[in-house]
Amino acid sequence: MRSYLLHRLWQSAVTLVLATIVVFLGVRALPGDPALAFAGEERDPASLAAIRERLGLNDSLVVQYGKFVLGALRGDLGTSTRTGIPVSTMIGTGLPVTIELSLLALLVAIVLGVTTGVVAAVRRGRPAEWFANALALLGLSVPNFWLGLIAILYLAVGLGLFPASGFVPFGEDPVANLHHLVLPALVLGTGIAAIVMRQTRSAMLESLGADYIRTARAKGASPRAVIGRHALRNSLVVVVTVVGLQLGILISGAVVTERIFGLPGFGKMTIDAVFQRDYPVIQGVVLVTAAAYILINFLVDVAYSLIDPRIRVAGGQS
Amino acid sequence: MGLSLIARRIRGRGAAALAIALAAAVAVGCAPVQQAAGPAAAPATDSFGTPADPAAVQQGGTLVMALSAEPDMLDPTQSRSLYSRYVFQTMCEKLYDLDQNTRIVPQLATALPTISPDGLTVTIPLREGVRFADGTPMDAQAVVTTFQRNLTMAGSGRKSELGPITSVEAQGASSVVLHLSAPFAPLTSALADRAGMIMSPAALQQLGDKFGTAPVCVGPFKFEKRVAQNSIDVVRDPNYYDAAKVHLDRITYRIITDASIRAANLQSGDAQVADTLSTQDVPALRTAAGIQVLQSNSLGYQGITFNVGNVSGLGNPVGDVGTPLSRDPRVRRAFELAVDRQGLVQAVFGGLYTPTCSPISPDTEFTSDAAQACPPHDPAAARALLQEAGVPVPYKITMIATNTPDVLRLAQALQATVADGGFDLQIQPVEYSALLDQQDRGDFEMLQLGWSGRIDPDNNITNYLSTDGGQNVAGYSDAALDALLTRARTSTDQAERVRLYGEAVTAIHAADPIVYLYRIRNFTGVTAKVSGVQVFPDGVVRLAFAGLTR
């Protein structure tokens, strides 16, 4: 077990280093100069040279990379070239917003998707199923930004039920925080809810046709118990897998949703940093993201190895 | 409130049309050239807003402004974005300010500067008894400290604006003397912008180059907090010398980059003020109950820059680009004649922007008939000139432009309008940062970009078209124009400066290194819940003395 852990730890460290190199070189391969992006319309050769010097852009790539790595090891990811705010502070405020939005969207997706999926399966061939299918089709077809604008138009501007944009930290005012996140979470969760609904419906239909359901019915179980306790529970395995696979969509959708609703999240921060050629911010967010992915993968692998010793053996031998 | 803005759009044109328009906005693809149908645009009349009536506003409360872009560093020395000036307006007063007629008026100074007959000594009298937000005194020594920082800090955005200042000295506690190596007429206007914002020496000592993270100046409000990409909060400063004029407790600048979302926030009441409204939203907002649209001409321009000599990058000697467009002024002149400015602003901006042929705003005291002279739209003459120049007609040219929907619509309209004049315009959309890079390297034939503008014409012309100009991306070099611009910037006689800048514009039209197209108008939405918001031609939204209506 120890050799397996060491092996995976080594692999993770190498992956992280490679990720930092790829990101470091990748942002520098982008067309456009950070000094120019910072100076904008107010620039002249002398001040551009001073800005390049201040940003360390005149150093060799090796020196710049070395400074980045040494800083990161000390927990210093640098400061935004545009705003002068420390990158770690920006990540510290942006990441919780995106995580909260994603979790709420996932909740919306699961509640909406599973409910309509079950209804569609149980009411197969009836108007309820057509309605649920139509909803799913709509959810899959309508892009986030469109749904976001419509939600702002009717629910925020028209009915005044929710704020049109903005964000209040949970610690400051939990009620206002949720009030601001309801619309973005609905918008972000709807697309995933459609996928969850279709998978739930298929899995439920398969379960409802299985022998054990017939047996449960023959034993006199109530329809609610048959659907809830037997069919749905067995279908949820598929649903959970599908939800897991949607995490990527969730994160990319969060970028668009954050922009529409003006949420100060991780995604919006990344996009803005790329457009502004804000190297320290891009490097910082990608480093944190890569580290999080690698850490999660590492923990999952460790968990697998605990569950199934064959993985541990194979891993140790490879 | 009646039908909302977006609902009108949807009902007016159909959801499918809006979906397509939105898709275009996101994908940065092609968009229709014509301005969307809607209520007819009202004539462009200025509406700057009025000061708050103290009897009609409450004391206290929070005002939320939807800000169209994120300000950069909140450091007057290092800042380079217009949007920082919006925030500075409430917390960093300047030696001088502009009034609604774009005249320079004293703010932290008590009078306009006294300039010695040789133009080499400038004396500025200061207000007395003024304190910074940290309680320390704002005196002549503090002004000297600010000037020295602006003049010496690496990467200072103010150094070039301050011109040939050689030294700064305090004369007692309430007067500052600037010594120059040559007369520099644009200095006073520079002091009415960020170069004139006085920073607390104590805060500078403490924060150094991180001053922008917690700026301390003199202002009706003081900095409280900033959440990156999201918001900036300022709160009332009890130390302010004219505190009785301040009504609000707090102003929150909330960054909302999408124009439609800003308009929606205005309508929903989540924001009481929104800047830079889209010309597509303005007609409907003007007729919406409870919303007032303030408007003023901008000091800047949008135009076309030709590469006439930028062969090895900005800051390097100019050379021969080797194209008919760069070598022969007749080809550029033909382009200017082929452009239908009125048609462009009508098609793309619903007639809400103002066609222009000049880098000098007609709203400033530097304007003249010569400065506003405009070649007529004459496609037949354009074709004739191209034939005279011996180039194949249609003449193919490639223009780089930023890949935003508005600019692409403009580029397509331009493409259509110059076709009649014998030009086959190819559009090459690029992202803004990449465009800046390409233009500085000289890797372009022509490009579309603008300048936000300043009141002094020197800032609008010299940087861009003098041989040694810091932003002479055209690579233009004309000794006669250089001499005119030098005389104009060193003259202390206003009438002479007006005449010289008129001559400079005539010289520019003779060679057309830049073809000026139009001026945007500053459209700012204000709800009826707030009073006292003002916007002058410098585009800065003035919120400091506004209040929530009773």
From TrEMBL, chain A:
Membrane topology per record: Multi-pass membrane protein
Keywords: Cell membrane, Membrane, Transmembrane, Transmembrane helix, Transport
Major localisation: membrane
Transmembrane segments: 101-122, 134-157, 177-197, 236-261, 281-304
Domain ABC transmembrane type-1: 95-304
Pfam family, one: BPD_transp_1
Family as reported in the entry's similarity comment: Belongs to the binding-protein-dependent transport system permease family.
Name of protein: ABC transporter permease
TrEMBL record, chain B:
InterPro entries: Peptide/Ni-bd, SBP_5, SBP_5_dom
UniProt keywords, alphabetically: Signal
Signal peptide coordinates: 1-36
Pfam families recorded: SBP_bac_5
Every Solute-binding protein family domain range: 104-470
Keyword presence, Signal: yes
Protein name: ABC transporter substrate-binding protein
